[in-house]
């Protein structure tokens, strides 16, 4: 069982050292809370998105995909309430100019609250006096076209959801969808967070996987004759469904159940659009925090866009011969946060020499096979006597199906350790017997079992190990 990490340093260090994540524009000193994904990070992130897409779009009969624009008209975010309400209360130190979220300060997230004799809040960093809180909008502004004035103002979207709401009619009509149905997308979102941090946990540029699930309101369901069970679910039952399915998805990909929990929001923490919300929380080294949110958005967004755009966004229910705005349930997860969670949950550092040969200090990333960036490493025992040629042939065959690495430098033990550290589930070793028996040794990262497999059977062998 992996020891629990008490800080993120080993993860940040491994991510940088092995090419998962780099500070963005590092040669210029980095960009605050913006990160670039290196070769292994890009592969792993893509695997996470593919798995989510397969589970929540392709394996759900009524969810369709969308890829909407990032640059968003100001009117959209005025209607959605983001321009006026997507703010955090900010205080700034008059001496060191560090900024803090006022609510986080009061919750004790920066340590004990310090005040001077006059009752003014003091900076947790330098003890200077903090300003009064002011509301700080989190959206990044930009201008569309050559003129930088108010009329050309647009925003980088703060959530992918609004592109779904503004396309609700287009998608429903062109795809001839009947309620309940979902529209899903994966894409970038941007927030000028006041206090980002904890590596890729809270960043200013991140990716979201979101579903807006449109369903019949209670009063409509009550009018309908019992049809199939599926179509009788109310928004709150769909809400439970998506909470449970999202939780199960993380567990199916190896996240330990004990490190996950559900937390329902109090009324006073709800976002401006939500009637209810539950977070799937993970036990990060810095404490339990939100990994994914599931919200009951009611018909708030469609109503707002209908009112502001003056376009009819109602759904026509043929069975009832009636028009109405559907209610919405929204599961939303950050890809970067999921990425961090999978890394932390999979990370293990060996604390003492083990009988299986693993040595103190070695690191193993026990990533789920479908999430691991590199699936198989091909290792010729030595760099001569036909072994590199045989290994090279195997490499080229397997590369057509999976991301595989060829490595011939250093001792085999060292090469195993390099692969363990990046979570490669299997290593294939080509040795002298391979010349005679046309077989190789396959080593399993987790069990450390070694199996002799015919070279010609390798592709079939690995097909049975990976979901694709
Ligand atoms: N459309 C709903 C929405 O955006 P949210 O709770 O603000 O709700 C949903 O965000 C998910 O997006 C979060 O659970 C988290 O996984 C991810 N997320 C939000 N802000 C983030 C940030 N600054 N950095 C990384 N991920 C973030």
How would you characterize this protein structure?
This protein is α+β, with helices and mostly antiparallel strands and 468 residues long. The protein is built from 15 helices and 24 strands. It is globular and about 75 Å long. The two termini are 28 Å apart.
Summarize the structure.
The protein is of the alpha+beta class and 468 residues long. 30% of the residues lie in helices and 26% in strands. The strands form seven sheets. A seven-stranded mixed beta sheet has the order 3-10-11-17-14-13-12. It has a five-stranded mixed beta sheet with strand order 21-20-22-23-24, with helices on both faces. It has a three-stranded antiparallel beta sheet with strand order 4-9-8.
Strand and helix map with partners:
Blueprint (H helix, E strand, L loop, with lengths): L8 H9 L3 E3 L11 E3 L1 H20 L4 E3 L5 E3 H6 L2 H4 L1 E6 L6 E3 H5 L27 E4 L3 E3 L9 E4 L4 H6 L1 H7 L6 E10 L14 E11 L2 H6 L11 H18 L7 E5 L11 E9 L2 E12 L1 H10 L5 E3 L4 E3 L2 E8 H12 E3 L13 E3 L10 E5 L6 H13 L4 E3 L5 H11 L3 E5 L1 H6 L1 E6 L5 E5 L3 H6 L5
Helix pairs in contact: 2-11
The chain binds glycyl-adenosine-5'-phosphate.
The site of glycyl-adenosine-5'-phosphate has 19 residues, from strand 11, strand 14, strand 17 and helix 11.
């Amino acid at each position: 069982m992996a020891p629990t990490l008490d800080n993120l340093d080993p993860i940040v260090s491994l991510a940088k050292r092995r090419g998962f994540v780099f500070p963005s524009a590092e040669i210029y000193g980095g960009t605050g809370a913006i990160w670039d994904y290196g070769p292994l990070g890009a592969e792993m992130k893509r695997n996470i998105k593919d798995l989510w897409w397969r589970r929540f779009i392709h394996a759900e009969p009524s969810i369709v995909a969308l890829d909407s624009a990032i640059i968003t008209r100001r009117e959209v975010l005025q209607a959605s309430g983001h321009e006026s309400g997507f703010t955090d209360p900010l205080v700034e130190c008059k001496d060191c100019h560090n900024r803090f979220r006022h609510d986080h300060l009061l919750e004790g997230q920066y340590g004990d609250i310090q005040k001077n004799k006059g009752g003014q809040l003091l900076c947790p960093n330098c003890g200077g006096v903090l300003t009064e809180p002011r509301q700080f909008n989190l959206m990044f502004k930009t201008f569309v076209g050559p003129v930088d004035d108010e009329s050309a103002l647009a925003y980088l979207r703060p959530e992918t959801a609004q592109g779904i709401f503004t396309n609700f009619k287009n998608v429903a009509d062109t795809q001839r969808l009947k309620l309940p149905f979902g529209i899903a997308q994966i894409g970038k979102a941007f927030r000028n967070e006041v206090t980002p941090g904890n590596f890729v946990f809270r960043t200013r540029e991140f990716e979201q996987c979101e579903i807006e699930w449109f369903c019949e309101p209670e009063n409509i369901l009550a009018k309908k004759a019992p049809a199939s069970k599926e179509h009788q679910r109310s928004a709150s039952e769909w809400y439970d469904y998506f909470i449970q399915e999202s939780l199960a998805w993380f567990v199916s990909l190896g996240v330990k159940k004990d490190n996950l929990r559900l937390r329902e929001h109090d009324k006073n923490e709800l976002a401006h659009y939500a009637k209810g919300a539950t977070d799937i929380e993970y036990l990060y080294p810095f404490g339990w925090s939100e990994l994914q949110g599931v919200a009951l958005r009611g018909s708030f967004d469609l109503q707002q866009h209908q009112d502001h755009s003056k376009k009819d966004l109602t759904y026509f229910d043929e069975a009832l011969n009636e028009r109405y705005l559907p209610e919405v349930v929204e599961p939303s997860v950050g890809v970067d946060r999921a990425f961090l969670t999978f890394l932390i949950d999979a990370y293990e550092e060996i604390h003492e020499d083990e009988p299986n040969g693993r040595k103190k200090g070695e690191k193993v990333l026990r990533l789920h096979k479908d999430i691991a960036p590199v699936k198989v490493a091909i290792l010729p025992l030595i760099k001569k006597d036909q072994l590199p040629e045989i290994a090279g042939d195997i490499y080229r065959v397997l590369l057509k199906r999976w991301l595989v690495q060829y490595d011939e430098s250093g001792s085999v033990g060292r090469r195993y350790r390099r692969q363990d550290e990046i979570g490669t589930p299997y290593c294939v070793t080509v040795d002298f017997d391979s010349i005679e028996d046309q077989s190789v040794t396959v080593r399993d990262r987790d069990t450390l079992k070694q199996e002799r497999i015919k070279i010609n059977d390798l592709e079939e062998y690995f097909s049975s190990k990976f979901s694709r």
